[in-house]
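Protein: Acetyltransferase (GNAT) family protein
Species: Alkalibacterium olivapovliticus
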Amino acid sequence: MMIRNYEPKDEKEWVYTKALSYLFSPFFDDMSREKDTFDEDIYQSTIELVAVEEGKIIGLLDIGVYTKDISEQYTYHPADKVAYFSNLAVHPDHQNKGIASKLFKEAEQRLHDQGVNALAIFTRDGDAANYLYKKWGAEIVSTDYLVVGTPKDLPDFRFGFDAENKRLKFTDSQTKKELPYYLREGTYIVSQKENIDLFDVETVYKETTYIKEYESKK
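Structure follows.
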């Protein structure tokens, strides 16, 4: 197996590998159809790696290094140079073989070479990913909950049809006023666990943000 820089010709295999890796994970809804890109107004540089075996991509890792202005204003850990862990995926047939750690080892050396002060990692529930981030020395700085469901106090509405104007019509059942839209179901970010009780819940994912600090390069 070898680790090298991502190249444009890798895009199709990159997408397949990420999709298969995420399919049965807490990130099942992140189904990219093309390679994620980094906005040059936000990131000053990137680390985009792939793990290749017998000519096939079996793993990938993306990290973006924020510009100085954004790094200094970064919510979780302001610093001179902050990096954001964007993607990490290993093909299901090649998991539990240390590929993710090898990708991260290469990326971390590049972070060191660029003088990065801190790496921000965002993830959801999942023993494998959280185990790795802790193993790699990252510290939890924040947790929240991603709730898929409907607020219990959502106003009642009447669902109707305006035949004259050939459109749907939504009306507040109490005020009788027409509504411009209605929320049937959605995804909400909840910062305190006890507030999950405000929803008729379909699914809840615990989200975790990690920070790994690095000594400034002298």
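Remarks: The mean pLDDT is 90.
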